[in-house]
Each structure stands twice: as structure tokens, then as C-alpha cells.
Design a protein that fits this description.
By secondary structure, this protein is α+β, with helices and mostly antiparallel strands. The protein contains 11 helices and 12 strands. The chain is elongated and about 135 Å long.
């Protein structure tokens, strides 16, 4: 084995007993780095193989895990909801949708998450207070020597001034002014994002109330006609059986009998389609209220139809829409976010100034002072950033121009929606009036047909046809009224009127329902003053 000798005949050693340095002559030459033994290579290879066996692999969920997850989700979907205490009114349906609808709850959680992120960003404005502690161990002293620059010889013997075991602790306080400025603008942007999510939640509530209005009256029509379809179908089947018997007895011509049976089957097909449609009405309403599918409930629909209308002048409606629509308010916040983003980009071009202060401790026995305090200031600046100022300002101006152009386009779309919603409400009002007249006529036809029915198959067909037409006309009446209520809700949403006030007396179901009733009264008061009116 080759050896390497010291150039200097003596080296310094620390006497651990009297803490003094003495000259000691080296007793042997320093060996060169030995080669790694074969056993070590084998152990290293075995360790690598063992670590490769610890690699992670995909672990799919088992059937039991999926069953447990499905049961937990089903329980969580309807947890905390009070049971239905009786027939459901329209206001209670709206309140349950606001309070328990899962889409609305998701928007509320997103808003709460944004608020928590704002709290984190506000905390980032504070200075940094860092605590550190460490322990080091060396199997050999940290010894070193020096070599002459011109003589290329060792000028001092090897020495060390660090213990083999060393403990350190540090408590530092630092504050970077540049980071503070950037964090300040980030916090302002996050505050505006919270307000943006609030406007999106408003939009969800407005759309939800519009859907509840339409689904409620469709379900009310289904509830009103549910008990009439079954007897009418039974009556049609009886007439069909009688017709088939008469066909076998050849009491009528085959063509006349088949035409009669075709008419009955067509009526039965329409009745079956209506029954299927009615069966879907309540589940849709239950989904909006977040009621478990299959739950049996009744609706407390008022007698008669209260036709809503709008008498607010169009210029006032346009002004209200431009002031209160969630989309336009969100556009204002997004524009302010763009401005703060520009300010943040400019702030990053400024010099970075960092203030620091801390207290430190080191157990090294060679130190004269083991504990000390230090303070400092550090300034750094990338001078090339100055050349980028004009580009950033140009980008900021272009971004503001784009934001304003988008807002103008959105404002035009909002004004168009106001006019379209007004026209749609008028159209739905006329259609409902026609549907009501048709339903009244069909009811009178049914009454006269029933009175003039004779005891034969042909007369039975006319009565069944008249009863079917009367029932479907009444169904279309409820559907038309549901569309009218939906158009009314769209009209309110188009000008930015919220179905639920911003401040409520409480967060329970009764408080939300009372707030919705008060909002309806407020709209009625606006109607009496030339605004929204409900007849």
C-alpha cells in the first residue's frame, strides 16, 4: 500500500487534559484512501436491492372500501337536515334549496376556502422569526494547514479550532421589504377573489331559485293529476277489451273497429307518457331541495294561479342591472385584480432590502464568546430590471384596456338579457293565458260529452278522448305556469335582485324561509312604487 508523508516534520495536537498545544512528531505516515472491500460492495448491492423492493405500487380500493365510502357519502349528503313536517310551500322549497342544495354548499365552501387563503396571505405580511438548532459530530478533527503562494511550501503546521462535537442554536428575525410589498399586493388580490366567489355564489342562488319555481309548479301539477291518470287508463283498457270482444262477435265492420282501437291505444300511449313525465317532476324538485330520492312528500300549492308581472320602466331596469348584476360586479373585481397584478410586477423591479437581527449560540470550546447577537441590512437590486419597466407598463395598459373592453361587452350582454327577459315574461304570460282558456274549454267539452254519452262503445271513446284532452290541457296549464314563474325569476335575476337578503336573522331553515318571504314583500313594495309588482 502506497503511503504519503507529511512535508512538515511536526503537527499540532490538542492536549485534552491541560487544553494546551504541544509539538508531537508524527509516528507513521498517512495512508492513502483504501479500496472498498468486496464485502462492502456486496452489502451495498443488497441494500440497493432492498430499497428497490420498497418502491410504491398502485393500490386500488377494495369492494369493502367502496361500499364504506358510498355509505359515508350517502349519510353526509343528508346529514343535519330537518325532516319534512307537512306539505311543502314554495317558500319552504326555496329555503331548503338555499340551505341544503349541494351545489350551493359547494360554492359556500369555495368562498370559505378563499377566505382562509386570505388569512394565510395576511399572515405572510409579517416578518420571519426563524429558530434553528443543530448538532454535528466528526470522527476526525477539522484540521487544516496553509501553503505559501510563492514558495509552494507549507508555512504552518496542520491545526484545528473546532471541536469534534459541536452544538449550535440560532434565533433570527428578518424582514424583506420587497417580499412585504409583493405579499401586500397578493393579499389584496386574494381579498378581491373572495368577493368574486361571493358574486358567483349569488349567481348560483339566483339560478337555483329560478329552477325551484319551475320545478315546484310542475310537481304541483303532477300531484294534482296523479290520481286521475290511473282511473282514466283503466277506463280506456276496459273500452279496449269491449271493442276486441265486439270485433270477435263481428258486430261492427273491421275497419271501424280497428280505427276505434287505434284511437284508444293512442290515447293510452299519451296517458302513459304523461304519467312518466309526472313521475319525474317530484324527484327533480327533491334534488333541488336535497331531499333523499324516493322520499314521499306533498306540496301545499295555493288554490288558483297568481300571475306575476313587471311594471318597472325599462330605463330603471337597465340601470339596476348595470349596478347589481353579479357578472358585472365580478368584472369590476377582476379589473382591480389586474391593477394589483401590475403593481406587484412593478414592485418586483425595486431593490430588495432585508433587515435581520438574531441571537446565536455555539458550544465550540475554541470560541472566546459562545453566545452573541448580530444585526444587519442587505440590499440587492438587479439593475437590468430597469429596462423592463416600460414593457410592464405597456402590458398593464393593454391588460386594462382588455378588461374594460370585456366589461363593456358584458354590459351590452346584460342589457340584452334584460330586454329578452322582459319579452320572455310577456310571452309566457300570454301563453299561460291561452293555456288557461284552452283548459277551461276542454273542461266544458268534457262536461258536455259526459252528459251526452250513450251506452255504446263509440260514445265511450268520445268521453275518454275528452277526459284525456281535458287532463292534458290541465297539465299543460301547470307547466305553462311553471314556465311563467321561471320567466319571472329570470326577470328578477336579470336586474340583479337577490331572492335572499345578504343579512339574515339566522342560518336555520325557518330564518331563511322568513328572509325569502321578506324579499318577496320588498319586491311587492317596489312594484307599488313603480317597480316590481305582483298581482
Amino acid at each position: 500500500m502506497k503511503t504519503k508523508l507529511f512535508r512538515y516534520p511536526y503537527f499540532l495536537n490538542k492536549n485534552q487534559d491541560n487544553k494546551r498545544f504541544v509539538n508531537v512528531r508524527p509516528t507513521h505516515a498517512l495512508p492513502s484512501a483504501p479500496r472498498l472491500p468486496r464485502r462492502s460492495l456486496i452489502a451495498l448491492s443488497a441494500s440497493a436491492l432492498w430499497l428497490s423492493g420498497c418502491a410504491l405500487h398502485p393500490t386500488p380500493f377494495s369492494d369493502a372500501d367502496r361500499v364504506q365510502s358510498a355509505q359515508a357519502d350517502r349519510t353526509a349528503m343528508f346529514a343535519g337536515e330537518p325532516p319534512l313536517g307537512g306539505p311543502v310551500t314554495l317558500e319552504e322549497a326555496m329555503a331548503r334549496a338555499v340551505r341544503y342544495n349541494l351545489d350551493h354548499r359547494q360554492k359556500m365552501m369555495e368562498e370559505a376556502l378563499a377566505q382562509q387563503q386570505l388569512n394565510v396571505d395576511n399572515f405572510n405580511l409579517l416578518p420571519q422569526l426563524t429558530a434553528q438548532a443543530g448538532y454535528t459530530y466528526r470522527n476526525q478533527p477539522l484540521a487544516s494547514s496553509s501553503q505559501g503562494l510563492y514558495t509552494d511550501t507549507q508555512v504552518v503546521p496542520p491545526s484545528y479550532s473546532t471541536d469534534q462535537n459541536d452544538r449550535t442554536t440560532d434565533l433570527g428575525f428578518s424582514w424583506n421589504l420587497l417580499d412585504f410589498g409583493v405579499s401586500y399586493f397578493e393579499a389584496k388580490e386574494q381579498a378581491d377573489r373572495v368577493l368574486v366567489l361571493e358574486q358567483r355564489r349569488r349567481k348560483v342562488v339566483q339560478l337555483l331559485m329560478q329552477q325551484v319555481r319551475e320545478a315546484y309548479w310542475e310537481a304541483a301539477g303532477a300531484q294534482h293529476l296523479h290520481d286521475r291518470i290511473g282511473p282514466l287508463l283503466d277506463e280506456a283498457r276496459t273500452a279496449l277489451d269491449e271493442s276486441r270482444k265486439s270485433q270477435q262477435e263481428a258486430l261492427r265492420s273491421p275497419l271501424e273497429t280497428l280505427g276505434y282501437q287505434h284511437a284508444l291505444l293512442d290515447i293510452m300511449r299519451q296517458l302513459e307518457a304523461v304519467r312518466d313525465q309526472l313521475e319525474e317532476a317530484k324527484p327533480r324538485l327533491a334534488s333541488l331541495m336535497n331531499i333523499a330520492p324516493g322520499t314521499d312528500f306533498t306540496l301545499a300549492a295555493p288554490d288558483g294561479f297568481n300571475v306575476p308581472s313587471f311594471d318597472m320602466p325599462m330605463d330603471q331596469m337597465e340601470e339596476a342591472a348595470l349596478e347589481h348584476r353579479p357578472e358585472l360586479v365580478e368584472a369590476d373585481y377582476n379589473e382591480r385584480i389586474s391593477v394589483n397584478e401590475t403593481h406587484k410586477a412593478i414592485a418586483k423591479l425595486l431593490p430588495g432590502v432585508e433587515l435581520s437581527f438574531g441571537t446565536h449560540y455555539d458550544s465550540n470550546s475554541f470560541l472566546v464568546y459562545h453566545a452573541w447577537r448580530a444585526a444587519g441590512i442587505n440590499v440587492s437590486w438587479n439593475l437590468l430590471n430597469v429596462l423592463n419597466v416600460s414593457n410592464i407598463r405597456g402590458m398593464a395598459k393593454a391588460q386594462l384596456d382588455v378588461s374594460r373592453a370585456q366589461r363593456l361587452a358584458l354590459s351590452m350582454a346584460v342589457l340584452t338579457q334584460v330586454h329578452v327577459a322582459r319579452a320572455d315574461l310577456s310571452a309566457k304570460t300570454r301563453q299561460f293565458d291561452l293555456a288557461r282558456q284552452i283548459s277551461d274549454v276542454d273542461q266544458q267539452i268534457l262536461e258536455h260529452t259526459h252528459n251526452a254519452t250513450v251506452a255504446n262503445a263509440q260514445g265511450k271513446l268520445e268521453e275518454i278522448r275528452a277526459a284525456s284532452e281535458a287532463m292534458m290541457s290541465e297539465l299543460r296549464l301547470y307547466q305553462s305556469y311553471g314556465e311563467l314563474e321561471s320567466a319571472y325569476g329570470q326577470m328578477l335575476a336579470s336586474i340583479g335582485l337577490d331572492p335572499v337578503p345578504e343579512k339574515m336573522a339566522g342560518n336555520d331553515l325557518a330564518a331563511v324561509e322568513q328572509s325569502i318571504v321578506l324579499a318577496e314583500r320588498r319586491w311587492a313594495a317596489l312594484g307599488e312604487a313603480g317597480g316590481v309588482k305582483t298581482q
